[in-house]
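Just wondering, does anyone understand what follows?

——
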Amino acid sequence: MTPRPTLTRRSLLGAALGTGAAVLLASCASGTASHGRSTASTSGLVIGMTYTPNVQFAPFYMAADAGDYVDGVSLRHHGAQEGQFDALLAGTEQLVVASADEAVVAASHGNDLVVVGGYYQRFPGCVIVPEDSGISTLEGLRGHSLGLPGRYGSTWFTVQLALATAGLSESDVDIQEIGYTQQAALVSRKVDAIAGFTNNDAVQIAQNGMAVRTIDVAPHVPLLGASLVTTRTQLEAHREDLAAAVAASVAGMERFVADPDGAVEATRAYVTDLVDTTQAAHAREVAVATAALVKPDADAVIGALRPEQVGEMIDFLAGRGLLGATTPSTDDVCDPLV
């Protein structure tokens, strides 16, 4: 199965709720409605970030503002119609912030991708239900509708893990592919539950008036979320430069975890609607929820990338039939630079 890329996320969000829908869009609820500064350049090492500027990318903004990156390193946000790995594979980016599970699946389809740095230390995928829902466990999804963008990407892997944990088959649950309208679909009760992320969907729905609960998809999650990804070609040619960029990004992650207000301030230079105090407060909530993924407990090492976790993820994805023609080894797709 060739996974459908997540390139049209922002363009699909416009379908949410119709009139007044903008309050539920990720771009508005977390302070990403309009673009401010861009640091992309045509030379040097370019770090790509998916879609529009967002406080979830504040570690990289903070690293840039603090001068952690060497001269010539620039940040670039992707367009709505651009695949998350397109520029990397074309050689116009040298590093991209992307979900490691999606990178491994793409590598299994023949793409030259290698995960070289960590970002989220806890996987963000979860099942989200209204607070008043009778669904309190994953087993409770039986016979209920579950909305997700489609049968691809991290939310689909989240659903696969939830089903495996609960001992359910796909036929036990009414799985509905609804594009990137999960938030609107849950608020309007078009679905009973959604697959989403703890640091944006769950936070943003609550910000817009619906109390929700999240249900963990496994006691131990064999998946990795947002990470730093490059290509083997880039790694062989520019290892030292990439290692320096990863180390600088980790310094930004440390600043981010320690200072959510600073994260909002750094993001304000890229996102003009954060001059509004309500939007800034919403962005801070997203920053705090994201920091809980970057450093989920006192023992978590910020920016860590553990090959054994990647190997466990490969085993899970292969076992669920989610990989392509080739099952990569851990060494094929994981080479920690710090």
Observations:
- The chain has two domains: 31-122+224-333, 125-215.
- The beta strands are 46-49, 74-77, 95-99, 114-118, 125-130, 145-148, 174-177, 193-197, 212-215, 226-230.
- Residues 1-43 have pLDDT under 50 and may be disordered.
- The chain is about 40% helix and 15% strand.
